[in-house]
Amino acid sequence: MTNKWLWIALLSLGLSGCQNPPSDSSVSAEQQQASSSPDTLSLDYEKYQLDNGLTVILHQDKSDPLVAVSTLVHVGSSREKPGRTGFAHFFEHMAFNDSENVPQGANRKMIEELGGSRNGGTWSDATIYYEVVPKDAFEKVMWIDSDRLGYMINTVTQGALEREKQVVKNEKRQRVDNRPYGHTDHVIRKNLYPEGHPYSWTVIGELDDLQAATLSDVKEFYQRFYGPANATLVIAGDIDIEQTKVMVEAWFGEIKASEPVPDMQPMPVELERSRSLYHLDKFARVPELRMTLPTVEDYHPDSYALEILGEILSFGKRAPLYKAIVEEGKLAPGVSSSQDSSELAGTFTIRVRANAGQDLDAVEQTIHKALQQFEQQGFSDNDLKRIKARQETSFYRGIASNLNKAFQLGVYEEFAGDPGFVTEDISRLKAVTREDVMRVYQQYIKDKPYILTSFVPHNEPDLIVDGAIAAHVKEEAIVEGAEQEFDADSIADYKKTPTLHDRSEPPLGEPPVVTMPEISRSNIDNGMTLYHLPHNELPIVEFILRIESGAILEAQDKLGQVNLLGELMNEGTANKTPEQLEDAIGLLGASISVNGGFESVMISGTTLARNFEATMDLVTEMLLEPRFDETEFERLKARRLNLIQQSKANPSRVASTAFYRQLYGTEHRVGMPTAGTMETISELTLDDMKTFYQQKLSPQNASLHVVGDISEAQIRGAIKPLTKRWQGEPVAIPALPDVEPIEQAKVFFIDIPGAKQSVIMAGKPAMEGRHPDYYPFYVAQNRLGGGSSARLFQTLRIEKGYTYGAYSGISRRNYVAPFVVQSQVRANVTLESLQLFRELIGQYDETYTQQDLDNTKNLLLKRNALRFETTGDLVQMMFDIDRLDLPLNFLEQDQKVLQEMPLEQARATFKKYGEEQQMHYIVVGDAETQLPGVREFSKSEPILLDRDGKLLQTL
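Structure for Peptidase M16, as requested:
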């Protein structure tokens, strides 16, 4: 079971295709009963069809007062035609504008202001729109979604068309053009699929095609693909089934009927020969090789064995690709292989992001060597068992939220023809045998032609695989004044479609009753604290063992020590090799991970409730008997250095590093990266790891947070071996030094030659998370940049089309955290965006209204309905209570502050902590074209920094 629908939430680009076997779906009102048996796992649902062709699936879950709604339309980039590529994704953006009965801007603003969340996504085979709202806003979602599906096309204007063109271009720059390896998907598709194949272009498409889009194209696309017979509506959550049917009929029933769009049949491809292509990447800092082979579409019988083959080849210490490339060859810090099946075809990909300076010829040769060893040695029964056990836990986690249940049911219906196909899906995966895995390897991988891509730093062509030819990669030119002007507020002239049902905005329903879950907190004999919250919706348990420690205790010359220690503690125990530990965890269907953070060392995990005791035995062994293997330590050091090197190619990461360094300085731990620097990581030794472990991890500083289908008595019994063996004295945690306020605001600039976008970060140190002003300030700044309905997003994206998103915020920390305002903007509007930042921030307190405060109160109060849905949500909430020493009822206290806050307090609090003239600005972009504009904004010479945030004398 691939659970690919989870990727829908990542939105728009790089999404996996969905699943599509033929299946009988003629039953009009199916009832499926859930079962706890892994072989018959299913979801309750009722399915029926409206007279106009719309398929409706309902799932009732009254555990939380919220409702998730998704509308899946069976049209993705595969339905496009050459010359109009990227149109499905572009239309998704257009569909979030106004419709005949929903006012302009409401689609993007209203859901958030009602305390909900909403978005959409497009991939090769479909488009989805979704919302999660407190239950009182459910009918408003019905109004918005039905109007989008049936009554939006007449309202499309030329101004909206031109604005969304610019927004999508900004999205492409952010996700493709302005990041390392961003063009890889384009290169692979163009060479793997023949010209005209529906997968031969990317989801985002060609910018020239996008620029050429007309209103006639939009209307034609809508008429062809956006009929109700080509869509599935799923509603999951706290609903009454019969009342919901009446509501669905009222809002969706009058939409004009449509003929079903015929399904496309599988179009697998074969390569006659291998093709090797390269690209000199302006953003990459290390070379990357990908080997892509054509395989089968989703739900093909062989797709399950190919999926398992991908895990066996690269996942885990015993995996042949890992052993050959990482352990023996020391060519890269990691390797991945995976099967990716979509509606029409599939691919099997091996990816290696190699060490800096590594010649990719050696990587390709080592891959072939590893595959030959796999042919000879095969794999163990435990490998197969481990993968299947992990799938059971993965499924349960995948249906923890109502939104994910809606995704699951909708995708199975639209592509499998059966919302309950999950039972068959799991059965097929469980039925895969050793023989199946070796057979698909022989049939699809062994000695088969492939597409090989070498993406290397632009100044290191010697790293390219020998014989590779240059890939065609079209770089967009960012030209001043080239973007077309548009009127974002233009209104279309049309005659409203008559309906029998009154399509005016419906009122809110009864307000949901939101109560904070009752958390139990108790002491354990060895000094630990136990936090527990029962949650019996699913037979799983999530936990975090938090040890107050972390990077805050590192010496200046040991930066990254704790981060590396956390990784090392995952690599086996005194009695188990890394391979044996992986097997032990995997066979329980569990996940366990040790992580070293800024304030804590954490052991977190998920397991089936029935395996909690055995999982905690492994946690005890990992914590108390670390292996401290020299070979693994050196490998992890090399990996960390590689990742630090890669981070210098990421403009957002570069901006963040410089931002914290300049706000806090190098003497304050917050000013330096938790992951360390190239210099400090290089000097760390295994003895450094042992010293920190022995001196800085104590049960007196520890707490265990457990959420799931388990009692406190069961938890205490399961951790008894740990609490008996783990003893120690408290470790003192020093207070961080005070942060000096910014006396003179400065503008800093970092050059990324050829950058298509500029990253802008502005901010200042504000306050600790326990400061009495923290929550009032969090409330006060919300309408500046707290989401898509706030001023930054509405101005920079909706009104101007400069960006894909713009936000502000402050994190709740134990140190004086910064107030941050940030965005990535089109390069040629860097100056204009900076000026808008200054204006929107600087005038915010004066222009903040009672309506802003009322909207924020409504938004934040109702959003609490979404905070307690999953075990992951709950365990994180307990973790934060412990980390920040908050009262167990802190949410209720925050709500009281929110409800009683007057307008004057909100304005004064923002003015005190959000003063624009006390903010540093960090700009990361192309110096050749943008530095003159930054000089104009700064009114003095900007301070030049390198990619580590250090001062430069000159570029």
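Confidence is low (pLDDT under 50) at residues 1-39.
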